[in-house]
Automatic annotation (TrEMBL):
<dbReference type="Pfam" id="PF13883">
    <property type="entry name" value="CREG_beta-barrel"/>
</dbReference>
<feature type="domain" description="CREG-like beta-barrel">
    <location>
        <begin position="12"/>
        <end position="153"/>
    </location>
</feature>
<dbReference type="InterPro" id="IPR012349">
    <property type="entry name" value="Split_barrel_FMN-bd"/>
</dbReference>
<protein>
    <submittedName>
        <fullName>HugZ family protein</fullName>
    </submittedName>
</protein>
<dbReference type="InterPro" id="IPR055343">
    <property type="entry name" value="CREG_beta-barrel"/>
</dbReference>
<dbReference type="InterPro" id="IPR037119">
    <property type="entry name" value="Haem_oxidase_HugZ-like_sf"/>
</dbReference>
<dbReference type="GO" id="GO:0005737">
    <property type="term" value="C:cytoplasm"/>
</dbReference>
Length: 249
C-alpha cells in the first residue's frame, strides 16, 4: 500500500510572512483554554493587540472563565484570520499555541502594553484600568497555518516573534518618532491607505509600530504592512513608512 502524501508543505518565507500578518493584523481572536473543572477545551473571543516583539496581548476580566482557566493552566490556543465572501475554508487562518504570561499593574512593561493596546482599541479606555482587569502576554510556542486549500504549514514560535536587539529602544522612541513624521507629513496615513489598498474610510492613522512593520487603523479597519527587513531603530521605521507612502509606485 502506497504511503499517503503529506498534506504539509515545506515552510518557506512566504508562509512565515502570511502567518505573521494573520497574527499581527488580528483585532480579535478565538481563544481556547482548558476548563479547570472538566478538562474540556473552552473557547471564547478576546480583543487582540501585540507587544513590541509581535507577541499577542489580551486584556481580560479576572472574573471570566478563560482567565480562571489560564490561572490554572497557562496553555492557550488562538485562532486568527477572517473569512470573506464564499467558502470560509478557502481563506487563510492561523492557529497559534501559546503560553500565557500575566502582566499585572506594576509589571516593568505593563505601561508599554497598555499604551499599545489602547492604540489599537481606544474604546477599551472605559475599563482598561479597572482593578479586576489584567493583561496576558501570549508567548507563541508553535503554530499551524492553513493558507487555503492545499496550503498547510507548521511553524515554530520563533517564526512569529520579532528577534531584534532594537525592540526595547524602538518601544521607547517609536511613538515620538511617528508623531514627528505626521507633523511633517499630515497626509501620510491617508496616502498609505491608498498605497496599501485599504478599505475606503475616513481618519486613517498609523498604529502598532515595531521593527518588523506597522499598522494603519480607521475605525474597525486595520491593515498590517511588513517590512522586507527589520528596522534598526525608530528613525529607520519612519524612513521606511515615508518611502512606502511617497515613493513612485
Amino acid at each position: 500500500m502506497k504511503d499517503q502524501p503529506s498534506p504539509l508543505r515545506e515552510t518557506d518565507d512566504e508562509a512565515r510572512k502570511l502567518a505573521r500578518v494573520l497574527l499581527r493584523s488580528a483585532r480579535h481572536a478565538a481563544i481556547a483554554v482548558l476548563d479547570p473543572e472538566t478538562g474540556f477545551p473552552f473557547a471564547s473571543r478576546v480583543l487582540l493587540a501585540t507587544d513590541i516583539d509581535g507577541a499577542p496581548v489580551i486584556l481580560v476580566s479576572k472574573l471570566s472563565a478563560h482567565t480562571k482557566a489560564l490561572a490554572r493552566d497557562a496553555r492557550a490556543s488562538l485562532l486568527t484570520g477572517e473569512p470573506g465572501k464564499g467558502d470560509p475554508l478557502a481563506y487563510a487562518r492561523l492557529t497559534t499555541q501559546c503560553t500565557a504570561e500575566p502582566v499585572e499593574h506594576g509589571h516593568h512593561f505593563h505601561e508599554r502594553i497598555r499604551t499599545r493596546f489602547l492604540d489599537r482599541h481606544p474604546k477599551a479606555k472605559l475599563y482598561i484600568d479597572f482593578p479586576d482587569f489584567l493583561f496576558f502576554r501570549l508567548k507563541p510556542e508553535r503554530a499551524s497555518l492553513n493558507g487555503g486549500f492545499g496550503r498547510a504549514y507548521h511553524l515554530g514560535g520563533r517564526d512569529l516573534v520579532i528577534q531584534s536587539p532594537a525592540n526595547e529602544e524602538i518601544a521607547a522612541k517609536a511613538a515620538e518618532a511617528v508623531r514627528d513624521l505626521v507633523e511633517r507629513h499630515p497626509d501620510v496615513a491617508s496616502v498609505l491607505a491608498v498605497r496599501l489598498n485599504a478599505p475606503e474610510s475616513a481618519s486613517w492613522r498609523i498604529s502598532g509600530v515595531d521593527p518588523a512593520g506597522f499598522e494603519i487603523i480607521s475605525g474597525d479597519f486595520l491593515v498590517r504592512y511588513e517590512f522586507e527587513t527589520l528596522a534598526a531603530d525608530s528613525d529607520h521605521i519612519c524612513s521606511n513608512i515615508s518611502k512606502i507612502a511617497y515613493s513612485i509606485p
